[in-house]
Design goal:
- The protein has helices at 5-18, 25-39, 83-96, 228-238; strands at residues 49-55, 61-68, 72-76, 105-109, 113-118, 123-128, 165-166, 176-178, 185-187, 194-195, 200-207, 211-212, 220-224.
- It is α+β, with helices and mostly antiparallel strands.
- The two termini are 39 Å apart.
Length: 242
């Protein structure tokens, strides 16, 4: 069973605290990434291997620190090392791989900082280890959650770009969506109530001038994010008698 994002964030916070003093590539990389994959409830050895040999161009060869064929290359460095050079090294490995094994993601790190590159989207998410809990959604692919083209990586604290979404405070403390019925809205839309991988969120309906629905009748409904406006129309119809 896949972990909830709240559980992943809690694990990420514990991981960041445990590994805050890590610094040595040769001595700590494998333990570090075994624990990193456990943040997401995944056993590293079930998906990726260490020190994968690759034959590079010009009759040279190298070893990828962590390799998940078709998904991820990790190039790990000791604390304070040049991560731009690490990315170039990972790129060389990527270019030397067979097409079917080339990854979508490259992760470079010096234990203190992560740089995650999405090669399909051309995006980069960079953050210090201490901020990992706020960026776990960027690693959704570890859980089998892939971003759709044009979707934000979430790691910068943003939410998906969805039609009609208006940031700002509401009765529930989040943003609101304007439905097809004038004056109708839905709340709360706090980050921990939006589940991007499942494509759902929980809404509370509000009729014009009548406040937030509570008491009799179901006050919330889980709906598809891409169909949110249409569902608000149904919510409006459902609560006309409030």
């Amino acid at each position: 069973m896949r972990l909830s994002w709240n559980e992943v964030r809690a694990r990420a916070a514990a991981f960041a605290e445990e590994w805050k003093a890590a610094a040595y590539e040769k001595g700590e990389t494998q333990s570090f990434y075994n624990a990193f994959f456990q943040v997401f409830g995944v056993k590293r050895r079930s998906v990726a291997r260490y020190e994968a040999h690759v034959a590079k161009l010009a009759n040279r060869s190298g070893f990828i620190d962590l390799f998940w064929p078709g998904v991820l290359i990790v190039e790990q460095k000791s604390a304070g090392r040049d991560l731009k050079a690490a990315y170039a090294q990972a790129g060389d490995y990527c270019d030397a791989l067979p097409e079917r094994e080339r990854p979508r993601y490259i992760l470079v790190s010096d234990f203190r900082t992560f740089h995650l590159y999405d090669l399909d989207e051309g995006d980069t998410v960079a953050f210090p280890l201490a901020d990992l809990p706020g960026h776990v959604e960027a690693f959704g692919f570890i859980l089998g959650v892939q971003r759709r083209p044009g979707q934000t990586p979430f790691g910068d604290g943003t939410r998906p770009s969805l039609p009609g979404y208006k940031p700002g405070k509401t009765a529930g403390g989040g943003g609101s969506w304007s439905g097809s019925k004038p004056g109708w809205a839905a709340s709360p839309l706090q980050p921990n109530q939006i589940d991007p991988d499942q494509g759902t969120t929980t809404l509370q309906a509000r009729a014009p001038g009548k406040g937030w629905s509570q008491g009799a009748g179901p006050p919330t409904i889980s709906v598809g994010l891409t169909c949110i406006t249409g569902y608000l129309s149904h919510l409006a119809d459902a609560y006309l008698s409030i």
